[in-house]
Amino acid sequence: MHLIMKSSFKYILSPLGILLVAALSVVQMSCGEKDSFNDIVSSDKAQPGPVTKVEVNNYAGGALISYDLPAAENLLYILAEYKINDRVTRQTKASYYADTIRVDGFEKEQPYEVTLYAVSRAEVRSEPVTVTVNPGKPAYLDAYTTVAMERDFGGVNITVHNQYKQAIGVIVITDNPTEGIMTPVEQYYTQLEYVNFSVRGFDTTAHNFGVYITDRWGNISDTLLETIHPIYETLVPKSGFSEYRLSSDSPLGATGLGWNTTHLWDGSTGEPGWHTESGTGKQLQVCTFDMGATVKLSRYKIWERGEGYGNDYSYGHGNPKTWTLWGSNVAAPQDADLPISSEPGTVVGDWINLGNFDCPPPPSGNPPGQTNAQDLAFVQAGFEFNVPLTAPKVRYIRFAVSSTWGNTDFAHVLELSFWGDTN
Q1: pLDDT tens digits for 195-231?
Q2: Burial, 247: exposed, middle or buried (Cβ in 10 Å; 0-12, 13-18, 19+)?
Q3: Handedness of CA 269, 274, 278, 282 (dihedral sign)
Q4: What kind of fold does domain 32-133 have according to CATH?
Q5: pTM over the 0.85 mark
């Protein structure tokens, strides 16, 4: 059961959240509105004529207004003034080269008045022309209607469909006994269409969670409230791990330097780790191991190769780019030839696809081979991934690399850690 609370938490944004929203607002206000409009000074104080033949094309959260420009030699820009909510008045400017102006940031799906001025190089405004726009439901409110919360390991999982791919903030709040109110525990800012993340660190007792959506203009939705009982989660003890080598597993490489499958759970995120042999010509690189206990997996973390032997291997060499986790809870599972690609839930012999995963791209935005210190640090910190809640309990894992950043026929990983319910 969930409740919807009218925007009672608007004041709860942390200082970081307020700064981020404010920064986004400044960026939006500044876009296409450089003060260069005010740089050109003219002594011609003649008032320009107003825009004419105004037409409105509404869209979600805004409108595109078209018009005919006045025949004024000293015209510099068109100015639109409008209130987006009860608190904020915006200005948008369009060059005299354009015959359209965009107005957006509206809080609701309702009529709003927009006042248009033609402005001269001497900053003289024309007589106002007022039009009514009827924006559709704003992206942040549309996204809010799709918010869903599900109990997750150690917390709550949140999904949102941001169909317009607009910049939104998904704010998660929970009870704060010290302050006596609900305060943010996660502020997730994104432009992704499909949002899926978890907030963890909670015990299995009942916790009240709330989710609301904000946008770059500071608009805030109502708050969806739910009481969640998180699922028990713990780090799977690595003391129970052991290699469970199958005939289709990839031959090991760099063994003379100490690389071996067992280094995947030795507690060290440095070299050596697991390394397969080069020159096999095989795309799929696989290793298999036993966790020593049946686990309902919640998430795992992978540490790929960073610096080693004086080289920077981040986003290159045999570091995995895409891979699949296969699992089995069969006693003594048998070997099976795994496909390069398959859907989660696919069963091959004794093995089931627990999920397909992609390594996140370099945070610098640089292409592989041109990465920098920021990218290296990102790799060395490790990448964490959720295991789908629909995945069954398993004891045995097959880690199958389908592509590497270096497009190699070998792969290497330094360490793997798994979390879940071991009960």
Answers
A1: 999 999 999 999 999 999 999 999 999 999 999 999 9
A2: exposed
A3: negative
A4: Immunoglobulin-like (2.60.40)
A5: no
Which residues of the chain form CATH 2.60.40.10? 2-23+142-228, 32-133
In angstroms, the Cα distances linking 358 to 79, 291, 323, 324, 363 are 46, 23, 7, 9, 14
The dihedrals phi and psi of 113, each to the nearest 5 degrees, come to -90, 135
Strands 394-404, 285-303: pairing kind: antiparallel
Which pLDDT tens digit goes with each residue over 99-132? Answer: 999 999 999 999 999 999 999 999 999 999 999 9
Q: Using omega within 30 degrees of 0 as the cis cutoff, is the peptide bond preceding 272 cis?
A: yes
Q: How sure is the predictor about 25, in pLDDT bands with cuts at 50, 70 and 90?
A: very low
| CATH code that applies to domain 234-421 | 2.60.120.260
CA separation for the pair 422, 420 (Å, rounded): 6
Q: Is there a contact between 396 and 290 (Cβ–Cβ < 8 Å)?
A: yes
- Output the CA–CA distances (angstroms, integers) from residue 152 to 156, 200, 232, 298, 355, in the order listed: 5, 8, 9, 8, 17
| Sign of the CA dihedral running 153, 154, 156, 162 | negative
Beginning with the edge strand found earlier in the chain, give each strand of the sheet holding 2-5 in spatial order: 2-5, 223-228, 207-215, 168-176, 181-190
Q: Where in the chain is the domain with CATH 2.60.120.260?
A: 234-421
User: How would residue 38 be classed by pLDDT, with cut points 50, 70 and 90?
Assistant: low
C-beta neighbour count of 196 within 10 angstroms:
12
Residues near 168 by beta carbon (within 8 Å), at least 6 away in sequence: 139, 140, 143, 160, 162, 189, 190, 191, 213, 214, 215
What is the model's pLDDT at position 61?
98
Fold entry, domain 2-23+142-228: Immunoglobulin-like (2.60.40)
Residues 6+ apart with CB under 8 A from 223: 4, 5, 6, 7, 8, 9, 173, 210, 211, 212
